[in-house]
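Structure ticket #2291
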Amino acid sequence: MTPLMIALLVIAGIVLLIAIGYMNHVVENNKLEKARTRVELNDRIRRCGEITETFPGQLMTPALKLLLTRLELNVTQRLLNLNKSDPSIKARIAELQALVAQGESIPVNNPPGPILTEAKAKDVRFLLEALHGQVTRAVQDGFLPTNEAKHWLREIRHLLVLLHIEFFNNLGQHALQQNQPGQARLAFERGAQYLRKQPDPEVYNEQHKYLENLM
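Resolution: structure written out below.
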């Protein structure tokens, strides 16, 4: 065997080792990417489920319930692509599809959750922020059309206003029950000020007049 052939074999061996290393690197990266995607999808499913189950009944509508179900269905179907043989995912998809098929006749069983404390108000605000994030991600995924997403982002802002109205009203009513008219007036005034600061305060004229009358 000539020195040239030996050199060529050595070079071929080095190239082969590099190729094997590169392929292993690609495979490992694909595994890591799938694992990362799986964690992300499971987290989004968990968030959708948390909003669906814990959102106060007085703020939950059939349309919102349907949206949350559609969002969860979309993410669960994407998860199935990574776990094609998982029977629990397939069963969940069937449940969600049956709910979506009901349209706005979808059952809404969320019990009312009066907003009586600042802590409760913060909890619901966090749910609304999570919903905002889910809608935004659904647009990025190409699942929600832009126009529909804009509608829901406006609706989320509206729900945030309703949350504040209920909180300030309940705060004031509680103060009245405790014979604290000064604290009650302060709560009603905070609610009225909050409504005046809205970009479209005329939408909430009725609620604003109600709070002013209480003041």
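Closing remark: The helical segments are 3-54, 62-82, 87-101, 118-140, 146-177, 181-196, 205-214.
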